[in-house]
Write a structure and sequence with these properties.
Its EC number is 3.1.3.5. This protein is of the alpha/beta class and about 270 residues long. The chain has six helices and eleven strands. Helix content is about 25%, strand content about 25%. The strands form two sheets. It has a nine-stranded mixed β-sheet with strand order 3-4-2-1-5-6-7-11-8, sandwiched between helices.
């Protein structure tokens, strides 16, 4: 198996080393693991691509490259250039330092890399490690992802739905809970949730020269979410698996809105 790995924390991030271990185990002795990751941290860039300027690609070692761009850029670089004649069988993005459950998924470059792979017609999985009080004292904060990652990916490869949505290919978002590896209670398939009362905001800052800046600040990652959602099952000690696709349509609203808006417009007064 040929596996491409990327991330949004950057080429030197410890979570990428964990993902390389996972991918190497999955690829097997005769397989290949290719790394194309951002040269610098790209957290929060979502599905951004560097459309208006070129992206430099640097070879660091055999099958290891850094790109001055986003995770989606990295996938495009691999698919369109580095692996153009031998495309990967699987794309893995992560392991992110911090969760990409709930509203975080909307901002995540880790998700963006997996989404781009799906749009390119490749099987893709994003993996993230939820952090919290129970992981703070661990010698390896990624131990849960490290010990359970390969097993979860194998189960998805064997049982995941990879073919039913050909227009917007499915991909998967996996979040490992904020507990030690030995305390994981199992795996749950869960929809994306939203933490109640927790959202991104800003912290204004005035520099000594009088210029005004803002810092983007995240909300509490321990805030509750709807029962059964990815956030809730993670907080209960379960690994969450969420099927996703690159389609922002609210399908639940289509029929009602069409009934209201697709009807012929009423005739104006005085029109025969």
């Amino acid at each position: 198996m040929r596996i491409l790995i990327t991330n949004d924390d950057g080429i030197n991030a410890p979570g990428l080393e964990v993902l390389h271990e996972i991918a190497t185990e999955l690829a097997g002795p005769g397989g290949e693991v290719w790394t194309v990751a951002p040269a610098f941290e790209q957290s929060g860039v979502g599905h951004c691509i560097s459309y208006a300027h070129p992206t430099m690609i640097a070879r660091l070692a055999e099958r290891r490259y850094a790109a001055e761009g986003s995770p989606a850029d990295c996938v495009l670089a691999a698919v369109g250039d580095l692996l153009a004649t031998t495309p990967p069988d699987l794309v893995l993005s992560g392991v992110n330092r911090g969760n990409n459950a709930g509203e975080n998924a909307m901002y995540s470059g880790t998700i963006g890399g997996a989404m781009e792979a799906a749009l390119q017609g490749l099987p893709a999985i994003a993996l993230s490690q939820y952090l919290g009080p129970r992981t703070a004292g661990l010698a390896d904060p990624f131990e849960t992802a490290r010990q359970h990652g390969a097993s979860v990916v194998r189960r998805l490869l064997d049982h995941g739905d990879w073919r039913s949505d050909q227009d917007f290919r499915l991909f998967y978002n996996v979040n490992f809970p904020p507990v030690p590896a030995a305390d994981v209670r199992g795996l749950r398939v869960a929809p994306q949730g939203q933490r109640r009362g927790s959202r991104f905001g800003v912290e204004p800052y005035v520099a000594p020269n009088g210029r005004r800046f803002i810092w983007i600040a995240g909300g509490s990652q321990q805030a509750p979410a709807a029962e059964g959602s990815d956030v809730a099952v993670n907080m209960d000690g379960f690994i969450s698996v969420t099927p996703m696709r690159a389609d922002l349509t609210c399908h639940a609203s289509l029929a009602r809105l069409a009934a209201a808006l697709d009807a012929p417009a009423p005739a104006e007064a005085g029109t025969p």
